[in-house]
Every structure is written in structure tokens, then in C-alpha cells.
């Protein structure tokens, strides 16, 4: 299996004239966005504490913590929580996925808690035309819909029963060529 490399993005660092290619995660850090996407161990907490203190020293803009955390160790999580309360920068926490155990505790550390479930409910309600309260009930459990029910609910517009037409400039490839034939791409 081929390894998946972290994408690079083009950014213009503050105070610089030139753009440069940086690691995607580094670009988020430059914007004071921190991802915690693993269980909180002593090493993870120490790295996050150091990063939090560094980001706080840059300016007083809000630090955002995006959490997808299956839990972790109590003492390291408490140390990170205390640090998030100590810094002068305001903090916001966002759960994208799961925040179990100590991850759920850490989610409460942000001064501003962005609730993805509330946002998701609002988007589904607006997109489907369903009442907000109904969407809350529907999302609280697995709901299976056949195509007709999905149309009635407003989740989809129609069911395609034939293949989609080819796009106007789409090339048709002939994969039955022999190895001797070259394909100019």
C-alpha cells in the first residue's frame, strides 16, 4: 500500500513577502487551530501544553481545539485542561467525531463550545424543510429510509435509474490496449 503523505498548502506567513509551501497541519497551527485526534497520553498532553503556551505567546487571538478523542489518561488531560484555563488567549473547543471519557471532559475546557450536533441539525432542517425538533429526534437514532422515503423527507431530489450521461469533454479510455501500445497522456 502506498503511504498517504500530508498535503502541502501555499501560505503567506505574517510579515513575509513570499508565499511558501507548508504542511497542512502547520498551516492550521499558524492560524491557532489545534487538532487532537488521538487518546490523550502524557506525551500528547505535553506536546499540546507546549503548543498552547507557544500560541498564547504569539498574540491574544482565540485558540481553537478540534477534538476527535477516544479518551485518555486522567492526569495528563487535567494538565492540558489547566493550561487551557491559564492562558490569556480565549479558547474554543469543537468535537468532530467523538469525545469519549477524558476527551469529553476536555471538550468542556473551551470558553466557546461549538456544538457540531446543533449545527448538523440546523443544516439538515434547513436543507430538508423538516422541523428542527423532528430532525433532533431523527438524528438521535439510526433511521433507515428507502429511496421513496428519502425523497419524501427531503434528503434527496430523485433516484437515478440509468447511468448518468457522460460529461461533454469526458474522454473515453480504452483499457484493453496491449502492453506494446503507448498512451500519450
From TrEMBL:
The lineage of its organism: Eukaryota, Viridiplantae, Chlorophyta, core chlorophytes, Chlorophyceae. This is ATP-dependent Clp protease proteolytic subunit. Belongs to the peptidase S14 family. It comes from the Eukaryota. It comes from Haematococcus lacustris (Green alga). One of its GO terms (biological process) is protein quality control for misfolded or incompletely synthesized proteins. PANTHER family: ATP-DEPENDENT CLP PROTEASE PROTEOLYTIC SUBUNIT, ATP-DEPENDENT CLP PROTEASE PROTEOLYTIC SUBUNIT-RELATED PROTEIN 2, CHLOROPLASTIC. GO terms for molecular function: ATP-dependent peptidase activity; ATPase binding; serine-type endopeptidase activity. Keywords: Hydrolase, Protease. InterPro entries: ClpP (IPR001907), ClpP/crotonase-like_dom_sf (IPR029045), ClpP/TepA (IPR023562). GO terms for cellular component: endopeptidase Clp complex; plastid. It holds the Pfam family CLP_protease.
